[in-house]
Amino acid sequence: MLGQNEDKDREKPDTSIRDGVNKACITTRARRTVRPFPFLSDTTIVGAALWQLRWPLTRGCNMLLTDNDRNALEACDENGVTIVGRIFALLDNFVEEGVQQGRFSREEADADLEIALWRSFALLQCDDYVSYAQAVEVLQKAEAAAAGSGVWHYRLAAALTHVGRLREAFDIARRGVEAEPGYPWGWLHYAKLLAHFGETEAAQAAVQRGLELVPGDAEFLTLEKEIRDGATLPEMLFHYIRPEHDEDLQSNRMDLKEVMEKHQALLCVVKDPEGFEAACAAFEFDEMKPDEELPYLLSARMPVEGVRVPVTLRMNEAGLSHMPPVWIRHARSAIADTMNKQDLKAGDIVNVAFDLDRSIHLIFMPDPATGESREHHFKLNPAVSGLGDREGPERSEDFPPDVVKMLEIVADLDEKEDYRGIIRLLEAEPDDERHPALTFELARACNNAAEFGGSELLRAIRLLESVRDRYENTHKWQFRMGYALFYLEREEEALPCFERAEALQKGDQDSLEFMRLCRFQMAFPRFSKPLRERINDFWDGMAQKTPGLLKRLADPDECQDAQLEITEDLQKVVPGALAYVGAIAGPVDLNLSADGDWLRTYLLRALIRRMPEELRSDWRLTLGRRRGAIPLRFDINGRELHAGNVYLWEEKPEEGGADRLIAYHEAFETLEEPEYAEAFSCVQALLDNAVGEAVRMKYYYDLRLTRKPESGVGFSVQEFQSYLRETDPMKLVTTMDDYLDESNEFDWDGSEEKDCDYLLDAVHAELSCPALVLAYFKNDPDLMRMLAQSGATAGILYMNTRDRSPEGRREVRDSLRTELQANVPEAYESVGIVDGRRYAYDVFLAWDLPAVLEAAREFAEGRDDVLELGFHSLWREAGGLSIRKPEKA
Q1: Are 144 and 111 in contact (CB under 8 A)?
Q2: Do β-strands 840-846 and 793-801 pair in parallel, antiparallel, or remain unpaired?
């Protein structure tokens, strides 16, 4: 009986490289491509469908499964969750015990229709090429018992379709609707195949027949429109059953790994003859044939270092026809590189396997010294196919002859991967004289030649912007722009480009992969060089340069250049930051400023705090522009601005908040919009020079320029310090730490919805960076983008305790903050706490996020009272990361 051994330990099935699927571990959720067993969710149809399936079986067949067996199997498919591995285990146990007890033979079990339907249902839920091929084998063994079964014909037709045997699928689908015309889903698949083979009227008639059986069904209505619009067979197959899940699939709102797997499952449906020939040529295959052991796979030989080695392709010829030749060339190069690094020879290769997801598996003979197996598995960077595709957005015959000739030369250089050669060739012509098609190719070459974060990526962006009007609505322009932005670590900007690229070329694997990477990076921001490393690099450089810098700063002729060099090095850490050199007697006064940017000021403070002890005798660092004795003068519209002729009025708010300063100068009367920002910056600099940047940012961040003098008593900027000394002298001793560490309290209603976004359940907060949280509420990513430019990020650690009490949550949060501040001070700075209805939150800035999350994980492991702990970026659209999940009941 199926239920008797379900709790016994079982060995996992063989997962050799030839099969590549461990189905024992698979659980699929409600996003189905085939109907479950029972076959329909509509109660009025379930009875008829079950009766039509079971009635002939009970009358004409010796059924093997009992009601207890069926109940155990049906329990594997409840509430939209299918436990595929459990179905396989139950069926395997049932057959094994039945054969051992002599109740039936293995052949009789294979021929049993009900067992075949259950096993094929589980296989089709896996939604991959190998499983579809295995489903064909399973169903065909039960054909003798399936004459009147609509569901058997439907599933076999679906499986045959997904392995590219379309004529056989068509015949089976036709026989299915003839055998059981009351089974609606047979008509659904039959209509798709009719449309594929050009029988549009018959396809629409099949759709109408299905709608008579299931009026208003979303699948039939969608198919009706697709047939009318001329959709391809893969497009008609790219669906889930439930409308809400299908909508998520079509709009890429679900896990992109699932979207990619769904597209990959359809690559083996329709063969592209030209693509097949190109792929075979790129691989240099010979002896291609069906695999001897698993005939639904392909076997061949290809040259590796002069030796022809055996190859297994986990796909059919249709799947091979969709492998880009440029990816194949890079794959072969990657195989050679891997062997060189591992000091292996081509003669050691037992097999090379390629998957539809572009994974590569190298199997070598066992190590002669130890006898240990030797395998290497890797997945090649998806970008190479998108960047290397030579097909342009326009036909070459539309170009002038000289442009066509240049494109041919570019194609030849690209074949040799000589991207620098392409750049030299195309940059010989000035940007404003170069044909747009050549500029487009130059941008691609810059992308291909670029190092991570390199200047060529910025060059590619500028080139692509110059041809935006011509190419913006093409897949390649969007992909290339997204690629450049992604490798500049500007994922939030790259993501919309890849989304647009995928929409223009539906199912493009490279675009989907980069979309997935963008989303993951935004959920878990990791940088090639996080802020912590950039700070270390800055101080390492300063340690080496200090002797020379001190000499140059003491030389009036070189002082300015030395200060500029310090500023340039500083801006590699914090873009836009400024360095001012003061007194050079004793330790040199070095004043760092983010030019009024409060968020970047946090980054500068982190840099100052990491200053090595051995440099403190040479440098004395301060944060924020200080009051200065040197008068500043600026020119706006030919008018000179200085502290003596810019006038201020202080405006007190009616209900709390900061005092507002209103500034006037006669030059402001004729300011144009482009000049406003410059004038505003000049007034800020004058104020900083008068009272200090920390004072202005803390108390007078609300500044407005006016075109005419205000009424009432005003004073010049020059008099502002005296005014404060008389009215509120304590303001003048404000430091930047006072400003950055000031905590603001907030009270909110807090959502009571169980599944609301993180932080939306907040009822109380104490924040020194409230703007970050408010930007999260507004779904405004600009502040997060600014942090990312420096390799930093901001996020929350959310937590709950086993007693689920607010007091318990707060205690855990406070303990976690204390531990992180003690263990990773160079990577973490807490900027607030939030109490919510579901969670307690720690709001923090991260200079090295992986280090922070690892420390948080260690904290959770040492606390039994922590029920749940996770991280979420303050970029609201990003996903979350679980550090400790609640145990399932």
Answers
A1: yes
A2: antiparallel
Per the domain annotation, does 728 fall within a domain? yes
Question: Token digits for 143?
Answer: 């054909």
Amino acid at the residue 727: T
pTM of the model: 0.65
How far is 857 from 879, CA to CA, in rounded Å? 18
What is the per-residue pLDDT across 480-530, written as a single tens digit (0 to 9) for each?
A: 999 999 998 888 889 999 999 999 988 888 898 899 888 888 877 878 889
Q: Is the dihedral of CA 435, 440, 441, 443 positive or negative?
A: positive
Residue where a domain terminates, one of 577, 596, 623: 623
User: What is the rounded distance in angstroms from the CA atom of residue 175 to the CA atom of residue 194?
Assistant: 13
DSSP string, 160-209: HHHTT-HHHHHHHHHHHHHH-TT-HHHHHHHHHHHHHTT-HHHHHHHHHH
Residues 375, 443 within the same domain? no
Task: Tell me whether strands 744-747 and 715-716 are parallel, antiparallel or unpaired.
Answer: unpaired
| Same domain for 568 and 587 | yes
DSSP code of residue 745: E
Map tokens 């098609």 to a residue: 437
Q: What is the largest CA-CA distance in the chain?
A: 107
Would residue 889 count as lying in a domain? no
Which structural domain range is residue 196 located in? 2-11+21-265
Do 216 and 87 reside in the same domain of the chain? yes
Number of domains within the chain: 6
Identify the DSSP state of 379: E
Q: What is the pLDDT of residues 848-869, one digit of tens each?
A: 999 999 999 999 999 999 999 9
DSSP three-state, residue 873: strand
Alpha-carbon 108 to chain mean position: 49
Query: With contact defined as beta carbons under 8 Å apart, do 535 and 572 qualify?
Result: no
Lowest mean pLDDT among 25-29, 243-247, 651-655: 25-29
761 and 724 co-located in one domain: no
